[in-house]
Design brief:
Blueprint: E1 12-16, H1 21-36, H2 40-53, E2 57-59, E3 62-63, E4 66-69, E5 76-86, E6 96-105, H3 109-124, H4 126-134, H5 138-147
Parallel strand pairs: 1-5, 3-6, 4-6
Antiparallel strand pairs: 2-3, 5-6
């Protein structure tokens, strides 16, 4: 599995405006409607339900909000670079400026876990995350995704 298997060039936000975690998740849910075919409210509710279990901010300025949804048949991803870092209750206490939303089928445990691992490995690479933080356009960010190897799994 490679990160571009579930994040396409039209699923990149190069400059997301949000002042809070909830605003960021709302904006991601709005953008994910077109990818998943699910409603904004359904996506947002699923993301908030997952966040209630513990923050998806895993440190280093990175969060991977994710949820499982009925009615989707494959994993959908959305990559966002925030205009300004926001508080996200990350495990290291640092604000988040890179987010990768993942939406998975309700019955897709193995693929969901593979996608989470793929994104985590990809974004933990300091060279890749640095390039994503300095990209100006969605095309710049997508070029980082397509040119990099760490996000792939067998």
């Amino acid at each position: 599995m490679n990160i571009v298997d579930f994040i396409s060039g039209d699923a990149i936000i190069s400059s997301l405006r949000a002042a809070t975690k909830e605003q960021a998740l709302t904006e991601l849910a709005k953008r994910a409607v077109g990818l998943s075919g699910r409603s904004e409210s359904e996506i947002f509710a699923a993301l908030m339900e997952r966040e209630a279990l513990g923050s998806t901010g895993f440190g280093g300025g990175i969060a991977i909000p994710h949820a499982k949804l009925k009615g989707i048949d494959r994993i959908h991803g959305l990559l966002a670079r925030l205009e300004r870092p926001i508080e996200f209750q990350a495990i290291d206490g640092q604000p988040v400026d890179l987010m990768c939303l993942l939406l998975a089928p309700a019955n897709g445990n193995a693929d969901h876990l593979k996608a989470l691992a793929c994104v985590s490995r990809f974004l933990r690479d300091p060279v890749i995350s640095g390039k994503l933080r300095h990209g100006k356009t969605a095309a710049d960010l997508f070029a980082v995704l397509t040119a990099s190897k760490p996000g792939s799994t067998p």
